[in-house]
Amino acid sequence: MRTNRIIERVLDHGVAPLLLVPSVILLFVILLGPFLYMVWTGFTDLHYALPNRDGAFVGFANFRRLMQDDPIFWHSFWLTMKFVFGVVLVEFMFGLGLALLLFHYIKQHRFILTLLLVPMMLAPIAVGLIWKLLLSGDFGMFTYYLRYFGLADQQTSILGNPSLVMPAIMLIDVWQWTPFVTLVILAGLLSLPKEPFEAAIMDGARPLQIFRDVTLPLLRPIIALVLLLRGIDAFKEFDKVFILTGGGPGISTEMLSIYTYRINFRDWDLGYGAVCAFMVYLVVLIMCSVFYKAVYWNEGRSKTVGKAAS
Amino acid sequence: MIGRSLVGRFVRSSASLAVCGLLALQGTEAMAWSLEEAAAPYEGTTIRTVGEALPPLEAMAKLKSEFESRTGITVEIEMYEHSEAVNKVMLDLNSRRGRYDFILQPHRELGRFVANGHLEPVERFMNDPSLRDPSFMPEEQLYQGLWHEISWYEGQVYGFPFTALNMYMWYRDDLLNDPNERAGFKEKYGYELKPATTWQEYTDIAEWFHRPDEGFYGTALQGKRHEALWYEWLNFLYSFGGDMLETNSGSECGPVVVNSPEAIASLEYYKSLLAYSPADSLNYTWDEVMALMQQGKVYQMIMWNDATYAVAEDHEASTVAGKMGFDIVPPQANGEPVGQVEGWTYLIPAGSKNQEAAYLFIQWMMEETQQLNQHLNGGATARPDVYAHPDVQAISYSQASMDTNAAARPKPTIPESPQITDILVRELSSYLSDAKNAKEALDDAAVEMSELLGDCAPLKYPVE
What we know:
The complex is a heterodimer.
Chain A lengths: L1 H40 L19 H8 L2 H35 L4 H7 L1 H4 L2 H11 L6 H8 L13 H30 L3 H8 L4 H29 L3 H6 L11 H11 L3 H40 L1
Chain B lengths: L1 H31 L2 H5 L6 E7 L2 H17 L2 E7 L1 H14 L7 E4 L3 H6 L7 H4 L11 H4 L2 H8 E2 L2 E2 L1 E7 L1 E6 H4 L2 H11 L9 H11 L7 E3 L7 H13 L21 H12 L13 H9 L3 E7 L3 H5 L11 E4 L11 E2 L1 E6 L7 H11 L2 H9 L7 H4 L2 H4 L4 H9 L1 E2 L7 H16 L5 H16 L11
Parallel strand pairs in B: 1-2, 8-9, 11-13
Antiparallel strand pairs in B: 3-12, 4-5, 6-12, 7-9, 7-10
Helix pairs in contact in B: 3-17, 12-13, 21-22
């Protein structure tokens, strides 16, 4: 008894923080350390390709260049934002619809779900290569049927046309990631308590009312999570675009991650590249924070309203 | 008489002795160096290299086993797509890991590597009698202009040519000699069908053979946003009398002339060929157009010598092997032939842990026997004696390759040259995709290049 008490006291007052040390070190080494180094590099002129650019401190020069003298960065930024909002919205709508369909109308949905998950389980590089072949103007099956049904002429090239290529990449992303949204929302639907639905039916609520006033509010945390994950992931989109177009034609698919890669690993302008990477981080952080607040703001308000009413 | 005879005998004996002595000395010298002895200290070593996955490197991979069995040095070869091979090396050099003991890189990277102290000059090995094979004399055995252009930087030698690359015109010789095609062509255009000697003829021929409904195209452009686009356009740029910088050698900086009227005209002409190229041309690099030619779907294009073997000679890989013809690209308006020189070079990184063993392998690969073998299997040698070999003379593309080598222009190797390439690739692609007109695209490129290079590179054609 006495020994146990001593151990408890030591754990409570001394050793517990020590046990956290390995995790903290790991966190620093793989996350905080590189991040701080990236921020520091952003204040230098470090350039691996050019002589005499060995990392001298240049203050905010790189940030100034990004804000004032780099139209391609801002083109990439807005292109990426359009991509993120476009694909996340469509994936959410399709994902929610499919999840509801599977939940309500298909009893044995395991097999269908497994089939649905195939695109998601493919490596992004493989997805890029598959679609590159499918969309090929010479022998691509997709292009063949577009021409067969008169939707495209002989000179139409989806990946070579600046106005078609971005929608095509967005559709591929929707094809790949809608199953993920479906899976998560379906898991959420399966875990919801039955009582609120039974009560709503007893009260005579119509299906649409049940969906709007019971299902959606109960699913809110799950929806928030899946939108957040997809938003972050879409913002970092790289592999498919790299394989399919390399950012072209021109700069029509040069998304932020491709541009940042180009500055860092093609031009080796690491000082400026660090600022671009920092901006990607900053935008993701702000996006997540705004989004998180937006999703939980209503919940907070409804709780406050509920308390006031009672 | 006796005296004379004695003197005569003495002189003859002395002369004979001297000759024998010289022969013996020569023999001793020859005996003094052997690959096996030179490599003995490095037996058991493994050396690693990296390069582009194309026939020249594949041929080297087949040859290396002889070197390995003679020296006990193992050679590991990593092959990647062009950009990937360049990136792997930059990562390795910048991280100073020393993964690669020697590297194979395009020569536009040379200045960047030298300026950052990534390379070991090979003079040290060449001056070391224990390593230098006395029969290896690059000063006499290589095309000197090419060697200096792709392996030297600011008067210092850093390596030896792995491939002497150039681009020339590929066309379907079987169709060129088809009587029906010839008659039809003459009737429509009023002159005999022959390999194009002007760009107007090139267009006429492309138009004549362009039959998209039959899956056959007049030409195929490498229009993807990729280095291939820049390389291809350079043929047109040079032929129209333009250039990127006004300099005399690749390691010089000079005024930016990439937006000259000649350059703009060359770009506009280049784009006009899209009308006779497959719909997907804006997604093509050299890989795709080579595959199209192998499948027999294109009449003519401008392509690389190191890719020619796989199309023209390899009957297993190509449906048009034995049916191809080759010629230098149409010359400038004044009739002067022009071509571009490009080369991948054997280089030894400063961080390599097995520099001597790497040098021995490179030196061995530069021998005539290996060069001939590599060239016959898809290589692109920089040794004139190999080109003179009857087996090489018999290859269908040797003459076009030699003619282009003779007319080749230098291109920038300064540290900024890869960035210049990147800027131009982006702007060319913007023009091809109708985002800008030719003048806007080249003006934008010129301004960016001038800013990148600084005071040494003013704009010769100011941008308003």
